[in-house]
Specification:
Blueprint (H helix, E strand, L loop, with lengths): L26 E3 L8 E4 L8 E5 L4 E10 L2 E8 L7 E4 L3 E3 L5 E5 L8 E8 L2 E10 L8 E7 L3 E3 L18 H20 L3 H14 L3 H6 L7 E3 L11 E3 L1 H10 L3 E5 L6 E4 L1 H6 L10 E5 L13 E9 L9 E11 L2 E10 L4
Parallel strand pairs: 13-20
Antiparallel strand pairs: 1-4, 1-7, 2-3, 4-5, 5-6, 8-9, 8-12, 9-10, 10-11, 13-14, 15-16, 17-18, 18-19, 19-20
Amino acid sequence: MWKFKKIVLLLSLMTSASFAEVQPLFYETYNFEKDDVLNIREQPNYKAKKIGELGLHYDVDILECRNIKTSKWCKIESIYATEPQGWVNAKFLQPKQHQEGYVTVKGKKSTCDYVIKCEEEKHNTLCLVVTGFGDDMNNLTLQTKWFNRKNLKPASRFTAMYDEPEADGYCNADKYIYQYQSDQKIKELSKTFTSPAFTIVGQLMNTLRHKDEKAIQKIIHPKSGLRLSALSYFDKKSSQHFSQKTFLENYNSRNKLFWGHTEAKGDVIQKDLYAYLEELPSDVPHISKVIVLNDLKNYPKNHNQTVKAYEIYWTLDEEHKEYAYQGLVVILEQYENQWYLVGITKDYWTP
């Protein structure tokens, strides 16, 4: 696959003249290497005193931005309060893909409030905030309220915590919100994909999300087993095949397996089954779309097999969604009027 380089658009920053309609709330550091750091300066220029540093993809709050000659600089604050307030070049900041997270509300006591989305309305950005839950945690409901973006400040699970001394010290509302959103997404997709085969897809996504290897074992085909590929297709020489029994044995052993060579550089792919499953996409609430596949990605189907294949997509960049995406291919086979998992591979994407 050819590589697609993401272009930084300054319209996403607060003071840009061509600012996007919805004003972002959550930002992260961006556009430098993982082993590098972003220096925080006392003043908005490269020669100013360094007062701190941040790693890649670190959550920050933008306090203000200024145009300095041909550059744009922003005063930022670490959401986790690990570094002092200071200035960084705006080219190293971007809005987070999903505008979700803990916030504090101006004039309101901190109660683990959590934003789930923001929208533009009459030239204002409004954000939907989860302020609480229903009484029945087994049948979860969300209590929500719209707030003006101007009255919200990004927070961490620690700074958004209850003010009461008896509180645990950190928020865990995101866990319940994510569970609710995941359940709603599966229900929504099930209305479109009514085949009993898709029920297994939903079960698989939940098991990946919860890192539940025993639940995966239960949906593996009892006769055909499960074939896993680290490539964008199934290759007999490098894809790994497991029965229900050997799947759990390999998962627990942590023995490294050979998965072929990367399609771009030809590097050897070696990892254990645990690592393979950890790397599979499982962000259920943010699934972009699901399609039924006729192309089985070279899966070695026998003539007498009854199979169905689905591909689940996640968009990584809305502006370039034709190129910046990731996909998960799931293949299922029917056996004794039940559907089981027989194949998984990832589609390639260009971040």
